[in-house]
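In response to a reviewer's request, we include the raw inputs and outputs for one of the modeled complexes. The two entities were modeled together in a single run.
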Amino acid sequence: MLQYSIRRLLYIIPVLLGVCFIVFFLFNVVATDPAAQQLGKHATASSIVELRKELGLDRSYFVQYLDIVKSAFTFDFGRSWSSHQKISDILMNKAGASLSLTIPAFIISMFLGISLSLFVAFYRGRLIDYATMLICIAMMSISYLVYIIVFQYVLAYEWGLFEVSGYESGFPAFIPYVALPILISVVTSLGPDIRFFRTIMLDEIYQDYVRTARAKGLSEKVILFKHVLRNALVPIITYIIIQLPFLILGALLLESFFDIPGLGGELLRALNSSDFPVIKAFTVLTAIAYMVFSLVTDIFYALADPRIKLQ
Amino acid sequence: MEKEYSLWADAFRRLAKNKIALVSLVIVIVYAAIALLVTFGLLADDWAQEVGPANVAPAADYLLGTDFLGRDVLKKVIYGTQVAMTVGFFSCAIAIPIGVTLGAIAGYFGGIVDDAIVWFYTTFASIPYLMMIIAIAYVMERGLKTMCIVLGVTSWVGLCRLVRGEVIKHRNRDYVQAVTALGGGHSKKIFTHILPNVFHLVIINASLRFQSAIKSEVILSYLGLGVQNVPSWGKMIDDAKQDLMQDRWWQLVGASFAMFLIVLALNILGDALRDALDPKLKGQES
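The model returned the following structure tokens for the whole complex.
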């Protein structure tokens, strides 16, 4: 087990090097010269050379690549090109607002998703099951952007039930501002969540141990809540862990529509102002988060389910 | 004795029994036909023309009203169909060959080839999909071509994993050994014998890939990374932010509904294909 964990941990290194290479390739090799872009059409040849030097673009590709690798290990991503603030500070400052939106949204949608999927699994094959699945698929077929636009317009602008946009930091001042974004986030994730959880539950329901439990004379409810749910928890927790890194990234579109000063909004700003170091930092950090959480998932899986052979 | 059917004939029989799936198939075909007609300039070619006053609500003359330049919204929706279907089709046309080839090679050869390919896709998968899309769309010239490439090269990993797993199961089966005994080489074994047996995964995956590409077009358009100078559903939905404030709902409804219908049809078709072709896979997300 320990050996497996260590090997799995070490595997992060080649993958991280690969991620750095993709980032390097996209932003240092393929991208249009950021120096020329920043200076605009009034650039002279000498000013471009100067700025390239300032940005460290005059060094060899290999050194530039090592720079990115180094930043991935030290978490020092340098300074933003537009605000000249340290990127690690920017990220720290903005993370709070993002998490105040994504964490409650995640918890609520997981809770609702699991409860509703247990409900439809209980009534599997009946009309209510089919109807719920059809609603889920229909909800998944509507663009995310449409949900945001319509909910914001109808619930906040027309009916005045929520704040239209804005943010105030500090608990509980932020609650009215994140309530509607949370609602939208929950509504949009219910469809895929219920479908996924229901599949897991149904996979378990047809297992032999359920037949045994039924033969013992246990009631459907006890079987579902005590036996099926407990076994289904392994894939469910895996599914939950693997989504955690994306909470940090924040909800890009929600933040921009509701003017929440979080990481998603920062990313959009960086995107519109060609702030390469910020975009690179986001890409590398989310990749690291993803790798760490998938490592945790794998180890959790191996611990929870002894049937998984460790090679 | 009962008549025997091949996998595909059997799958088609099962699909034909599913009325909702058949309707979905018809919807997909109609959308594809519209997209082709637009491509050859036979339909909605004059979408840019002013047909009447600006911002007219839907009426008999203009079924979906007009936009702020007095252009027919219905024609824009029809033109948008072409953009959506192009994005869906070409992103599949890029993602599927990459995923299938790499997956088959990794699964078949194993060893160091497998390690290299697994490393490659793990690296790709580690960068969140949206970040990757943004990064690539950012460094390339914005437009339809870029969008197809971006969505194609970011969406092959799931299929690659699936094909690799399936090929690993197949490579030591008797029928593959029989080909070896008959003197068949690697490429003959992979392409003429193993791949047809995992091809159903490709079909199922394609229909889900297609609809997710259409949905991504909307997000990319909002971010300003989508098509330029021509209408698309994403741009129309994005425009609706301002429209709604003036109680102009038709552009939003037109584009959203056009998109809803095709995405719903592809989703239902994907599920039905999965049930018909691969009962084992039932419910597994792509």
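As requested, we also summarize the result in words. Chain B touches chain A through 46 residues (CB under 8 Å). The CA atoms of residues 133 and 265 of chain B lie 25 Å apart.
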